[in-house]
Amino acid sequence: MALASNKVVCITGASRGIGRGCALEFAKHGASGLVLHYFETDEEILSLKAEIETYNTRVVTVYGDISDPATSTKIVQSGVDTFGRIDVLVSNAGICPFHEFLSMPLEIYERTRKVNLDGSFYIVQAVANQMKNQTPQGGAIVAISSISAFFGGEFQCHYTPTKAAILSLMQSCAIALGKYDIRANAVLPGTIATDINKEDLSDSDKREYMIKRTALGRLGAPDDIAGPVVFLASDLAKYITGTSLLVDGGMGSNLQ
Ligand code: NAD
Ligand code: RM4
Questions:
Q1: Which one of 91, 176, 210, 212 has the largest count of C-beta atoms within 10 Å of its C-beta?
Q2: Is 194 close to ligand 2, i.e. is its CB under 6 Å away?
Q3: What family does this belong to (predicted)?
Q4: CATH of the domain spanning 8-247
């Protein structure tokens, strides 16, 4: 089923990991246009663009640091200039520089908050204004929070609060934006093997521990997250707003 046909979808942090997985899934589900934001080298995003265009989905790419509000303005402008509207936002860009708490330099804390929370706020606000003002009005916002919104991590005292805040942002946005036919939901991935945790999971004991905690006996991959994101953004989910969907292979159900 083409869950995204005729939709213009904007994704932040799209060049790799979960963002890349989402971009490919939206293209497979018939999205007409993708606005792909990135903060890496051009090579990664250009290879993704080429792959996506094989699905007959048009692509515009936008570079920038999401912690700068001007980046969000630029992303929306590019989407509107190229496609005339934005139907879906996936707010995905984020960082997790694992660090011990007591010795954590404030720069690391502040950078994590600025990218994860401030960046999410800027892009959600910018895209929501576009969704409110376009004809027909409306759209769907999916923010990538985390299982870390519910559970702490010894080396994530700066990160987990940003993920709880993103969940809360979606709840308040659902209330604030429903009157404009804009839905806002959060997806909470468990442990997905990507660049963000490559170093952390290179410790084989830690990796085995994380795998064992899942019910399905494996870590997630980006496409495990992309399907639920496409669903929440689709018309099949038209009465779902303000909710959080945990996609963790059962990790959060395991007390041991
Ligand atoms: P990743 O490192 O592969 O992707 C992160 C993306 O964010 C990259 O595209 C990167 O360029 C972008 N980014 C980083 N800093 C940025 C900045 N200042 N401005 C703009 N873009 C920036 O990791 P991932 O796992 O794909 O992470 C994507 C999202 O998923 C993050 O928000 C992360 O917190 C969340 N998440 C990941 C996991 C996991 O286990 N991998 C679990 C829960 C939530
Ligand atoms: C997630 C969760 C994962 C971790 C990533 C970086 O929220 O804590 O286990 O690998 O963040």
A1: 91
A2: no
A3: Belongs to the short-chain dehydrogenases/reductases (SDR) family.
A4: 3.40.50.720
